[in-house]
Design goal:
Blueprint: H1 2-36, H2 57-68, H3 73-83
Amino acid sequence: MMGNGSGMVGMWWLWLFGLLVVLGIALVVVVLVRVLGGGINRGGSAGLGGPPPGASQARRILDERYARGELSTEEYREHLHELGEDA
């Protein structure tokens, strides 16, 4: 009688382990799909209308000054041209 009871406990742990393995694999697949598909923003403000993540510090400052109204559109474009980042 005791042998049957301990076998059931062993089966319960086996089912739990199997479920955890399946959930772990599913999690890895979801993360890979999101990272490789571009679903995760890994820094910068590219998705928020700002400069791309690789933009220079000078470009970021220029964009901020333009957004605050410190520069006219003509001045902004001139500075972009000087930076070699024509819009």
